[in-house]
Amino acid sequence: MQSPPVVAVVGATGAAGGTLLRVLEDRLFPIGDFRAFASARSAGALVRFRDHDVPVAEVDDAGLAGADIVFFAAGANTSRRFAPVVAAGGGVAVDKSSAYRLDPAVPLVVPEVNAEALDRQTGIVANPNCVTIPLAVVLAPLHSRFGLRHLTVATYQAASGGGRALAAELGQQERDDAYGRPPRKEVYPHVLHGNVVPGGWSMVGDETEEEVKVTAEFRRVLDLAELSIAVTTVRVPVAVGHSAAVWVEFDNAVEADEARRILSKAPGVLVVDDPATQQYPTPRAVAGSDEVHVGRIRADRSRENGLALFLAADNLRKGAATNAVQVAELLLC
Length: 333
Prior knowledge:
Blueprint: E1 6-10, H1 15-26, E2 33-38, E3 46-49, E4 52-58, H2 61-64, E5 69-72, H3 76-88, E6 92-95, H4 111-114, E7 124-126, H5 132-146, E8 148-156, H6 164-178, E9 203-204, E10 207-208, H7 209-221, E11 228-232, E12 242-250, H8 256-264, E13 269-271, H9 283-286, E14 292-299, E15 306-313, H10 317-332
Parallel strand pairs: 1-2, 1-5, 2-4, 5-6, 6-7, 8-11, 13-14
Antiparallel strand pairs: 3-4, 8-12, 9-10, 12-15, 14-15
Helix pairs in contact: 1-10, 5-7
């Protein structure tokens, strides 16, 4: 790999790609040469990166030649088509889509949790989805101490997790409601403003596609193939920031104070836990942050060795872009 590396972003004009560019800037990621790619529809546009307007090209095999690290933020089909091209050319594709998350030949990596999985990468590294990442960051250190037995999760997922168009539609619905106009729904099957929707994803039997993803990916990241998990995914009228209420049953006895101490030392975690003074994680507070906020840590007396907690993370940053850049940072080590 060249030093500093040749870096490319596929999907540079989208919401995920734009956040990725900001994170690369914020973290001062070393770059020798930079390339921006998108679909034919967006080719010719400009993206701002490190005080320069960078022209966006249509992604193709020739454009990816010689790239050392390529971030994919353009959907599973694009990743399936072009990530192998990057790997065959000697580079590494860091994929943020769902294309390779459950491929046993491709490591699924959360750097704070299973960085050692990168030792077996052969040119493609997958990133988990925006719910799995914060769950793993918070629960992995507790699992190491107490042993996870069962996990129940209810998510509260921001509109931006459904893409830039849904976030824009939420904003328009808010304006429509404020002016007494019937809010329109074109991107999402429900009016999201003033609403909470336990669905909106494709269904896989009686589970949403998102619930199936979180279950399978979390088990893979923590290497707990048989872990008992129940997940309900919910879309909420928040622009940025996924949250989750979590109930955990452990193999060993756990005290809330001890869990709090462990989490206060865990990488990537910020404990915000003083409910008496109204201090706890919220999506508004975590927006723009690369840490997972966790609080409301307390005993769950309804189950043996039980613990309850609440977490929040910026789904566009730590839930996606920051995790990918952290992976790339490890590749340079």
